Amino acid sequence: MAPGDTGLTLRQMYPGRDVESIRMGVPDPMAGASERERIRARHAVPPETMLVAAYGGVTPEKRIPQILRALAATRLVQPNLKLLLVGATTDHYDPKADAAATGVSDLVTVTGYVPDSELPAYLAAADVACCLRWPSAQETSASWLRCLAAGLPTIITDLAHQSELPTLDPRNWAVQHGLPTLANQTPVAVAIDILDEDHSLALALRRLVTDAALRQQLARAARSHWVSQHQLDHMADDYDRVLTAAALRSAPGAALPPHLRPNPLDHAQTLIAPFGLTTRDLDLDPS
Q: Does residue 228 share a domain with residue 89?
């Protein structure tokens, strides 16, 4: 996801080694207005209601408790508000009970598992997407990329391996991060500092649900970023480049441990000879 920052870290860890990056690609999920209306009608969301959504597993790692608290604060400035949690639930977390404890159960709908064929329509139904993650294994978020591809304004966690992407800090709405070599420094998302999560998330959600111009700006930048970096063809081209280069390399030399030198089959034969067996009996001898 973040070839700049992650690649630099790996090069520092393995000096002298070639480090390549492969971009994740996701298909185009764009859906029409009729699909947006269909999903909203299915979940009793009126056309004029501001719909926030989170996609993927409904777990604490996706910061659902924090989103619920931000929702409670945001309804004070935008009462016509709903949250759609799109994805499978787990045994170790009850989002409905958490929503009730937070005082927002009337605003929250949990869809359960949604098949891939329905995901474009669910993306089209939303106005804002929360794509938060902590802890992180520095993985690429496919659900976030799908939101970008759908042209959704998104709120993400400010993670180290994504620091080459220009984002907005909701504490001052200034552009943060981005690589100097990037021609386009337009922010693609709002990024939340994990050390200021509740405060920053409330600021971000409040601004996005009340500022149509900012939503439109982020939506255009999101779609543009997917078009330029994360289509399926980008991923295929990167795999082709890396695999072609690897195929042209000579086989690396390997310092085998003593028990595998000079011939591991000879060593195996020595071990099983007292039992009257040969390596042919074990189907180990390729000859």
A: yes
Q: How far is CA 59 from CA 152, 219, 266, 274, in A?
A: 21, 26, 53, 57
Q: State how far Cα 114 lies from the chain centre.
A: 17
What residue ranges in the chain does DSSP mark as E strands? 50-55, 81-86, 108-112, 128-131, 154-157, 167-169, 174-176, 190-192
Q: Do residues 163 and 262 both lie within one domain?
A: no
Neighbours of 239 (CB within 10 A): 13
Same-domain status, 277 and 207: no
Low-confidence residues of the chain: pLDDT under 50: 1-4, 285
Q: Helix or strand or coil: residue 79?
A: coil
How many domains in the chain? 2
Quote the pLDDT of residue 19.
86
**Do residues 89 and 58 lie in contact, with contact meaning Cβ atoms separated by under 8 Å?**
yes
Q: Look at the pTM and tell me if it is higher than 0.90.
A: no
pLDDT score recorded for residue 283: 65
Q: Read off the pLDDT of residues 87-109 as tens digits, 9 standing for 90 and up.
A: 999 999 999 999 999 999 999 99
How crowded is the C-beta side of 77, counted as CA atoms within 13 Å?
Answer: 14
Query: In terms of domains, do 98 and 209 share one?
Result: yes
> Is 269 found in the same domain as 165?
no
Q: Please indicate, yes or no, if residue 250 is contained in any of the structural domains.
A: no
The residue range of the domain holding 275 is 258-287
- Helices and strands (H, E) in the chain, number of each type: 10, 8
Residue 84 lies in a domain: yes
Which residues are CB-neighbours of 100 under 8 A, at least 6 positions away? none
Q: How would you classify residue 241: left for phi > 0, otherwise alpha for psi between -120 and 50, otherwise beta?
A: alpha
* CA count, 13 A, side-chain hemisphere, 40: 20
